[in-house]
Design brief:
This protein has 427 residues and is of the alpha/beta class. The chain contains 13 helices and 18 strands. Helix content is 40%, strand content 17%.
């Protein structure tokens, strides 16, 4: 009996020692600076945003921190922040694909009217004035989320005007001194089965040869189209990919990123490429298995816990260090919601680390996310307050009337605008 007790005690002591050592090591990783060397300039002037070591540099070789906002809700609406609904159609949950189907089934709309309404929405939701506002606020970048359905007829056949609106946005960025991040938010078949991929009804990218090849072909087309365009800061290959429905990242994602990376590099050797780890750094894979150059690791950080924002950011830093990602970092999406102190802590933390960052998002519909879904406050820099219109039953005139009221002149500045303004005035 005594021997058994002795063995148990030894096991307990050993386990306690392992936990203590692990805890101390994790605390070390939480506070270790993953970017200790920050040369302010390098002798590499190629005109493009570029990765060197753990930092980004502009086309003149000057150290660069991308600071900006997502144009969420423009090419892709999401039910919780959008101005459209699909009523009782199908599941009743708005997605890009379901909305298109609901409009086609709407007896009040012709195909020509649907095309006119789609164009009216895109023309009104984001205008030239918005790029001026972003620039004058002091940001230097916009991330532009879109899906395959914005540039193709059916996910496969490229539209004749595929790049019309995207090109206009990039031109506006050029005019107002902003960088553009081209973000494929939804791949053919969906890479995550989330509503923001445009389609929540299927998870049919990985393992589907047609969809994989179509997504690769789409990126070859995008890279060829924007090759030589120095306003484009980076290609964001896939937004928030999952290895399976409801399961975060992993080698499956990184192996497909490798195929996309090689396809892009065949067409464009110059642009920075973003590799997303969703949701945590450990949901990626070791970079030693991939021959990647001029890349930046991307995270999306939404602290939906009781822990402080700074604790959450330090947790990400620890996992980033654990994975040994000696690359620049872009936090492509984040939000600190209604707490000003958390915004201030985030800004300071990102600057201390030299990480680039873009908040989600520029504009949202407060009626949807507050009144309907009781979501967190202050998603956008600007808030509309519009009762969503039912695309499955409304008339052309009813939808067009709503679409005439979605410009930023009809929105109110939120507290988030003020947080950004205070930060950028000092920087």
């Amino acid at each position: 009996m005594k021997r058994m007790v002795s063995i148990v005690m030894r096991v307990v002591v050993a386990a306690a020692a392992i936990l203590l050592i692990s805890g101390v090591y994790f605390l070390y990783l939480m506070h270790k600076d993953p970017n200790p060397s920050r040369p302010q300039a390098i002798d590499a002037r190629n005109g493009y945003v570029q990765a060197h070591g753990t930092n980004l540099y502009d086309g003149n070789g000057k150290i660069l921190q991308l600071k900006g906002v997502n144009l969420g809700g423009w090419f892709i609406q999401e039910f919780w922040m959008g101005i459209n609904s699909v009523g009782q159609y199908d599941t009743g949950l708005y997605t890009q694909v379901r909305a298109a189907a609901a409009m086609k089934e709407n007896p009040n709309l012709t195909e020509e009217q649907i095309r006119e309404l789609d164009a009216l929405y895109l023309d009104n939701y984001i205008r030239e004035e918005d790029f001026r506002i972003i620039s004058e606020l002091g940001m230097n970048t916009v991330r532009i989320p879109f899906t395959c359905y914005n540039v193709t007829e059916d996910g496969y056949k490229l539209r004749e005007d595929a790049f019309g609106k995207l090109d206009w946005a990039v031109d506006m960025c050029t005019k107002y001194g902003l960088y553009a991040v081209i973000d494929l938010h939804g791949a053919v078949g969906s890479q995550n089965m989330d509503i923001h991929s445009g389609d929540d009804a299927q998870y049919a990218l990985y393992g589907n040869k047609k969809n994989e090849e179509s997504t690769i072909a789409l990126w070859k087309t995008i890279a060829s189209h924007y090759r030589g365009n120095k306003t484009v800061a980076a290609y964001d290959l896939l937004n928030e990919p999952r290895r399976a429905p409801g399961k975060f990242g992993g080698k499956v994602n990184f192996d497909f990123f490798d195929r996309l990376y090689k396809a892009v590099r065949e067409e464009d050797p110059d642009h920075l490429i973003l590799i997303e780890c969703f949701s945590f750094p450990v949901n990626g894979a070791k970079l030693s298995g991939y021959d990647w150059e001029n890349i930046c690791i991307e995270y999306h950080i939404y602290n939906l816990t009781e822990f402080s924002q700074k604790t959450c950011l330090n947790f990400y830093r620890a996992l980033h260090n654990l994975m040994g990602y000696n690359k620049p970092v872009l936090v492509g999406e984040w939000n600190a919601f209604e707490k000003e102190s958390e915004w201030k802590d985030s800004f300071e933390w990102f600057d201390e680390q030299g990480w680039s960052f873009m908040s989600w998002c520029y504009k949202a519909n407060a009626y949807a996310y507050i009144d309907l879904y009781h979501n967190y406050s202050d998603w956008g820099l600007f808030d509309l307050r519009i009762v969503p219109v039912d695309l499955s039953t409304a008339t052309f005139e009813e939808i067009a009337e709503i679409y005439g009221k979605i410009g930023t002149e009809h929105a109110e500045k939120t507290a988030v605008y003020g947080y950004w303004e205070k930060y950028l005035e000092k920087n």
